[in-house]
């Protein structure tokens, strides 16, 4: 018995203009829906990707035009649309980097990025997301029936304990929409995604920003779909807007986890204990 799920993963070139970003997103979603996708994932910063000085005028609520328009399209086309993230209005002069899964019946599930991108790589990239973004506090699984989507955003990928907790809680698909830096991307992006798939026996879906801008950050691109064995099922091979697709069988998660049952063989009670040194 199979548990087939037709998925699409997008690569975008979002910028600072909401209307242009929305038009691009609508085109990608319709392309996927025309090819029988049940689910499409857009990347991080889908609604706006620009300098911090424009955050105040660019941040939106769930009722704003970007989310609302895509919500209406989800209902119209009967497809689950996962906005990898949009800049959400927050409090105290800060914002949220928010992922939202939109369902054809009109309801939604939210996840706010937990691990903020604060890095300083000499001659590479310096960024302090925490200067303007408030970290989320909750792990989230969004259900689509056969698929249990463990939600995350970009820099979260460097924290394997998040994905282990999501998998133990029932996630069989790990979602990693991103705007991954072009500095670290060539060395780290694919190995991290494949590692999360392998260690949890889960599918990984990773939408990506491609190109970016000097006023925000240059990004690596390379959207990917990876199976529970760590094999790459689909990936973008060029820069710019694109959609990759695959029909994934969630039975494969059950099979791989039965063969290498790391979720049950782990010993969490020991991990918080004393580490003996000699």
Describe this structure in words.
It is a single chain. This protein is 27% helix and 28% strand. The protein has 278 residues and is an alpha/beta fold. It has a single domain, classed as Carbon-nitrogen hydrolase (Nitrilase/N-carbamoyl-D-aminoacid amidohydrolase, 4-Layer Sandwich), CATH 3.60.110. Strands 1, 2, 3, 4, 5, 12, 13 and 16 form an 8-stranded mixed sheet that branches. Strand 14 and strand 15 form a beta hairpin. It is globular. The model has no long low-confidence stretch (mean pLDDT 95).
How many DSSP-defined strands? Answer: 16
Strand content: 25-35%
* Fraction of residues in helix: 25-40%
Class of secondary structure makeup: alpha/beta
Q: How does the overall form come out from the CA principal axes?
A: globular
Question: Which regions are unreliable across 5 or more consecutive residues at pLDDT < 50?
Answer: none
Short description:
It contains 8 helices and 16 strands.
Which key terms come to mind for this protein?
alpha/beta, 16 strands, 278 residues, Nitrilase/N-carbamoyl-D-aminoacid amidohydrolase, six-stranded mixed β-sheet
Task: Give the helix/strand layout.
Blueprint lengths: L3 E9 L5 H17 L4 E3 L13 H4 L6 H13 L2 E10 L5 E8 L5 E5 L5 E3 L5 E3 L12 E3 L4 E4 L8 H9 L4 E3 L9 H16 L2 E4 L1 E5 L5 E3 L3 E3 L5 E4 L6 E8 L1 H9 L2 H4 L2 H4 L7
Parallel strand pairs: 1-2, 1-12, 2-3, 9-10, 10-11
Antiparallel strand pairs: 1-16, 3-4, 4-5, 6-7, 8-9, 11-14, 12-13, 14-15
Helix pairs in contact: 1-3
